[in-house]
Amino acid sequence: NSNQFQLDHFFSSP
Amino acid sequence: KSCSILVTDANFECNEENIMLQAMDNSHIALVSVEIGAPGFTSYRCDRTMPLGVDLTSLTKVLRCAKDENICTLKAADEADVLNLVYDAKSAFFSPFFFAFMWHGRDASSPFPPFFLLCSALLPLFIHLNISLSSQTPITSSWPETKYDTRVTLPSAEFTRIVRDLSQLGEHVRIEVSKEVVRISKLKAKSSAEDEDNDSIPTGVVIEMNQHVSLTFSLKYLVNFSKSGSLSGEVQLLMSNDVPLLVAYDFTQGYIRCYLAPKIGD
To answer: Between chains, do A5 and B127 touch, taking CB under 8 Å as contact?
Structure first.
């Protein structure tokens, strides 16, 4: 939902 | 079991040191990372590093057939596409379970039956993320100086109780850590002030803090994470203001680490 970060925002995927 | 609540299929990466699993839920809000070290098994042999792609829901069902006193043996032959679970081969009731792999790390050359092609479509979900935090989470006794701003250690049963109780009252929770106090409080609708009925912080809470943090999380995920509570007497909550929360359960054979992205806009 709109006011929730996703992990991709924080983790660097390869 | 606690992983299967978050992710339905995942790769168990087996190598000679350990078995690891790392997977995000479909919404990419939570990630679970599990390691079980070889010493944690009565006997352990892995001749070749290989991923065992398993449907965790089915695996949980099969494992539920085991009794506490059973010894469970997991076997996967080199070119097999099944995971074989045997409980207590000695006992009268010999229960071999053969378990279709979701995904077997064969090289791309070997012909994949359609089922594998379907699964390979799922693979991108399971590509291991380089958790930039992973090096920052020495879940050992040493306090990670420059890693997280705070670490709160509390009895896992208390954490389970707190998040379960709060989840009856609301969907989100603010976790705020200052020098002496951890505030785990339910967020009321914006109109009313923040709830004052904090859970009284139980004994056995250790707060290590380099900097005050305050983040808001979805309780649904915290309740899921707390299902791992039976594995360890205590749980560690590691937080910094601009990174996902890490809920870490250490146990003799390894650990379960759960990452949860915060809500936006505190």
So the answer is: no
